[in-house]
Amino acid sequence: MTSASRIIVDKYHDYILKNRNYSIHTVQSYITDIKQYLDYLEDSSTSYIPDSKSLRKWVRSLMVNEISEKSIHRKVSAVKSFADYLFISDEIDNEIALEIQLPKLKKRIPTYVKEREINKVLDSYELDVDNYPSSLEFIIFSSFYHTGMRRSELISLKESNLSIDNMELKVLGKGQKERIIPLSNEIVQQLERFLECKKSNQIKSDYVFCDPKGAQLKEKWVYQVVKNILDQTFSDKKSPHVLRHSFATHLLQNGADMNSIKELLGHSSLAATQIYAHNDISQLKKIYKDTHPFSE
Asked: What's the pTM?
């Protein structure tokens, strides 16, 4: 990258972080994508200003290198956002229309854990809680499933944003958007026991979930905790996001409407929530048995 393009990218970084309130993860991804594109432009001996022709060539090169369709869509979105910024910040005089056909995204069905498996794991694990570390691991797993929080949201949750009395918590999601998540009696009781354990161990922290020294938890550690517990299930994938998928899928299977699930998950559009509009074969059999007149 040239020094001129570095200055512009730095300005764009501050713009999407402070003015557009993009999450830190999104900002990092967008900046990486834009730098890759600008490096490609320099290799092609063209201007740093995006144009449809160079963008098409770049996308073809990404496909040749077997970059996933989802990643390509994100990278193009980053370049389009950067092009918009160049115009609104007066770096260029005219808007840039980036016309490009993108590879079709494969429809993905979210991996989730069935209710009976979740309940079995929770019941079994709760019996083994006998100190702060085991209490922390249990409440992390249970909180993911009962609230549908993202990993970053759970790690950043502060005690000031947890209201046991009102049976709700407030999280800061993507784009710095706040949302309220209601809590069930079961998770409230589990949280009360965890907070009492935390207090009895004289652990002081602004964060609800913290290590024994009161420090904020590391994302990799939380991931590993959930993975280890999910190893006891038949789930193909084992991550905190699987519990988020399970939360949403079970809500849908038990009658929740799509808009309510959208609000609980903190999705910006209904399209992002509609991936949960699926049923496994056991659910289809149940629906058939309960509704078809000749199912008996």
From this structure: 0.67
